[in-house]
């Protein structure tokens, strides 16, 4: 095939015009004013396809994280000691890079995060995504993906709830956390819960944060949302979700029902006793063994790394399942379930690409 024929053939397969020399910059304002923001239902639909492609090997990605020492932050910020406002909380001062590719697109998400930001009136984290055409790796768009990142993480809630072998007809949920991820979790459960939800108890590190989220959302949700200040209602929960910035477990194992199902989205939030019990009596899983293991910041991975082993090495031998391998977990009714999700990098690619394509449709002349 002659060179010009190769170019013509390749151009037919590109997902953009070669004459577009500059990427579109989609900030939050343009995303909203152009009508390009994805609904919760659209996010779920896009992620359905993402999981199909992940499981059949058509989509792949990796994550790199540079975690900076908290002591250095306090010193450089001019504090002699850790301020009381951050007692029991991880700063999560880090720079993360998530990159992935699928049959049509490739991309890189860069995240900067620090819990201290709230004292400055800033978000804890901001995500910027560079979306590229896969064949040429030319940038198509630079997208503020902060809201999309929360939405794709929140979508794990309805996905994992669909796996839970819960026998009751009206589910009670206990959610730890009241930030953007918690809000996205509630939106996901509202849009696509596998079975009716009666109520959600909401607990945060700061009670005022939980109350504020309840005040802003309670009238728009199809279930009762209740802010609580302690764990006394935890024993009622069929489904427990942790999405906090806590630096230690947020509950004790004896506070849980023995058949409760759990989803962990934060850091070291879950007691080792809970993980060991569920491993013996029920089913433990994660979104991806290698990714959770190498990130080594969540309770499941830390259970192995602190003893000199790794989740990646021992997980398969212990029967720990992966969302990225199969959706058919065949769980026994009434058995406890514990699922840890770190957030697969390629999921961001799918939601950002969908937003970009919606933008092109919305702005087409």
TrEMBL record:
Keywords: NAD
Upper taxonomic lineage: Bacteria, Pseudomonadati, Pseudomonadota, Alphaproteobacteria, Hyphomicrobiales
InterPro entries: NAD(P)-bd_dom_sf, ODC_Mu_crystall, ODC_N
The organism of origin for this protein: Agrobacterium albertimagni AOL15
Gene Ontology, cellular component aspect: cytoplasm
Family according to the record: Belongs to the ornithine cyclodeaminase/mu-crystallin family.
Pfam families recorded: OCD_Mu_crystall (PF02423)
Protein name (database record): Ornithine cyclodeaminase/mu-crystallin
